[in-house]
Amino acid sequence: RNKHAQHGASAGFAGAVCPVERRQPLAECSMPFDPDNTGYISTEKFRSLLQRHGSELDPHKLEVLLALADSNSEGRICYQDFVNLMSNKRSNSFRQAILQGNRRLCSKALLEETGLSLSQRLIRHVAYETLPREIDRKWYYDSYTCCPPPWFMITITIVEVAFFLYNGVVLDRFVLQVTHPLYLKNALLYHPQLRAQAWRYLTYIFMHAGIEHLGLNVVLQLLVGVPLEMVHGAARISFVYVAGVVAGSLAVSVADMTAPVVGSSGGVYALVSAHLANIVMADLRRVSFEFGRAVWLRFHPSAYPPCPHPSFMAHLGGVMVGITLGVIILRNYEQRLQDQTLWWIFLSIYLIFVLFAIFWNIFAYSLLDLKLPPPP
């Protein structure tokens, strides 16, 4: 189907209701259908619009409009909800109305549609992998334009692979690079003796213990992160990823204070745990294997005592971000986060943890009189 043609049809249908410039006030725009200027239009008038102009719309969007009409028992529809739909924006009240009317939807599921091109089947697959509700899947399928593409996860993966290859050439080792005596001298990884160098709390993601470590993280980033970014956008997914990365290194500095940190597992686990309700069992097996490898490596005899191998606590830090901030971001598909109360609660919890970890790093190491490994 031609998504540009659909957009033009939607605009034409919206123009039938509001044949004026967008800058005109909403009250004036809705005057023919809302003569009393109440902000609502009657269900009867709304259905007459659907009958006259429904052929111009994509069937899925028409289905959403019908669900919106069926969901309201008061005989009226909020005009702003209608405007939000036609401009591909959804408010809380609109989402609740759709969910109430969702049980009345009787057309076939998106998965049952045939005759789709390869790109359309890919978009449909992403919709079913990332969104739990059929109405959201259809909404996403109709509105996705691949502009912009999922650039963040692809870019971060390419950079991580590039750094690994560079280190592999420099160290002349690609398997278990972490056992090389010069490995810890890299300026990117987190080391407890160098915790005052703030960039290390983030740049450690570009260092991996070996090709097996990198491979597992890359697979999870591409299989989970790219579809999530296609649905929720680079801004939301990059926030979850970076928040998981920072929480991972800070969790190590609090709970495993003598260990270094490498790898992007904090960000990966934030994405995976946020998406846990929808991922398939194959992904769960990969996550379990990667976490088990990290635990084994942490307690395996170190190649350069007294410094232990990298900590696995970054994984747990990423999980905590995923089940708090990440779940809120992914659950509220196409909604403004600033309108979500839980978003502000979990964001406050995250910021409190970050502040606590900063003060912990400043004072706790000296107060506890720890025997830290020597600087690299």
TrEMBL record:
<dbReference type="InterPro" id="IPR051739">
    <property type="entry name" value="Rhomboid_IM_Serine_Proteases"/>
</dbReference>
<dbReference type="GO" id="GO:0005509">
    <property type="term" value="F:calcium ion binding"/>
</dbReference>
<feature type="transmembrane region" description="Helical">
    <location>
        <begin position="201"/>
        <end position="223"/>
    </location>
</feature>
<dbReference type="Pfam" id="PF01694">
    <property type="entry name" value="Rhomboid"/>
</dbReference>
<protein>
    <recommendedName>
        <fullName>Rhomboid-related protein 3</fullName>
        <ecNumber>3.4.21.105</ecNumber>
    </recommendedName>
</protein>
<feature type="transmembrane region" description="Helical">
    <location>
        <begin position="235"/>
        <end position="254"/>
    </location>
</feature>
<keyword id="KW-0378">Hydrolase</keyword>
<dbReference type="GO" id="GO:0006508">
    <property type="term" value="P:proteolysis"/>
</dbReference>
<feature type="active site" description="Nucleophile">
    <location>
        <position position="265"/>
    </location>
</feature>
<comment type="similarity">
    <text>Belongs to the peptidase S54 family.</text>
</comment>
<dbReference type="Pfam" id="PF13499">
    <property type="entry name" value="EF-hand_7"/>
</dbReference>
<dbReference type="InterPro" id="IPR035952">
    <property type="entry name" value="Rhomboid-like_sf"/>
</dbReference>
<feature type="transmembrane region" description="Helical">
    <location>
        <begin position="342"/>
        <end position="368"/>
    </location>
</feature>
<feature type="transmembrane region" description="Helical">
    <location>
        <begin position="261"/>
        <end position="281"/>
    </location>
</feature>
<feature type="domain" description="EF-hand">
    <location>
        <begin position="33"/>
        <end position="56"/>
    </location>
</feature>
<dbReference type="InterPro" id="IPR002048">
    <property type="entry name" value="EF_hand_dom"/>
</dbReference>
<keyword id="KW-0106">Calcium</keyword>
<dbReference type="InterPro" id="IPR022764">
    <property type="entry name" value="Peptidase_S54_rhomboid_dom"/>
</dbReference>
<comment type="function">
    <text>May be involved in regulated intramembrane proteolysis and the subsequent release of functional polypeptides from their membrane anchors.</text>
</comment>
<keyword id="KW-0720">Serine protease</keyword>
<keyword id="KW-0812">Transmembrane</keyword>
<feature type="active site">
    <location>
        <position position="315"/>
    </location>
</feature>
<dbReference type="GO" id="GO:0004252">
    <property type="term" value="F:serine-type endopeptidase activity"/>
</dbReference>
<dbReference type="InterPro" id="IPR011992">
    <property type="entry name" value="EF-hand-dom_pair"/>
</dbReference>
<feature type="transmembrane region" description="Helical">
    <location>
        <begin position="151"/>
        <end position="171"/>
    </location>
</feature>
<dbReference type="InterPro" id="IPR017213">
    <property type="entry name" value="Peptidase_S54_rhomboid_met"/>
</dbReference>
<dbReference type="InterPro" id="IPR018247">
    <property type="entry name" value="EF_Hand_1_Ca_BS"/>
</dbReference>
<keyword id="KW-0479">Metal-binding</keyword>
<dbReference type="GO" id="GO:0016020">
    <property type="term" value="C:membrane"/>
</dbReference>
<keyword id="KW-0472">Membrane</keyword>
<keyword id="KW-1133">Transmembrane helix</keyword>
<keyword id="KW-0645">Protease</keyword>
<feature type="transmembrane region" description="Helical">
    <location>
        <begin position="312"/>
        <end position="330"/>
    </location>
</feature>
